């Protein structure tokens, strides 16, 4: 096709509106003939068209018979039919996460607001000005963890 030309293409998908999954079309514009510094089939433009968007289910209702909340002095436990979550109240982190009896997470990650300083940072003395952010999460500053249950949760 030449620039500014229109052309219809048949893509061979019939009745895509009735499909329950999402449907996307990826369009790639490639160089047909090699040019200086550009090889043949080099992608010069791309676009993704959403033909049938993903529709998430809005029918989720928590069933208090399948979801259990337990709390002790140190941890909060959320257990379902096939999973278990443990949250550490002192650190605010995930302590454990298991699916079907297999532990997926043994210890939750850290929040880190620090990045390595650049030359400009050293010139502005920001590493010393903002040093409290370097170890903010590891210093375990005062935290409060509470669990609130709504009326539908047992």
What's this, in brief?
The protein is mostly beta strands and 154 residues long.
Radius of gyration: 27 Å
Quaternary state of the chains: single chain
Largest sheet: 5 strands, antiparallel
Question: Largest beta sheet: what is the strand line-up?
Answer: 3-4-5-6-7
Number of spatially distinct domains: 3
How would you sum up the global shape? flat
Q: Report the count of strand segments.
A: 7
Query: What is the ordering of alpha helices and beta strands?
Result: EEEEEEEHH
Flag low-confidence runs. Answer: none
Helical content class: under 10%
What report would you give on this structure?
With 154 residues, this protein is mostly beta strands. It folds into three domains: 37 residues, no CATH class; 47 residues, no CATH class; 28 residues, no CATH class. A five-stranded antiparallel beta sheet has the order 3-4-5-6-7, with no helix packed on it. It has a two-stranded antiparallel sheet with strand order 1-2. The radius of gyration is 27 Å and the shape is flat.
Question: What's the SSE blueprint?
Answer:
Elements: E1 23-30, E2 43-52, E3 68-71, E4 75-79, E5 83-88, E6 93-99, E7 102-105, H1 119-123, H2 126-129
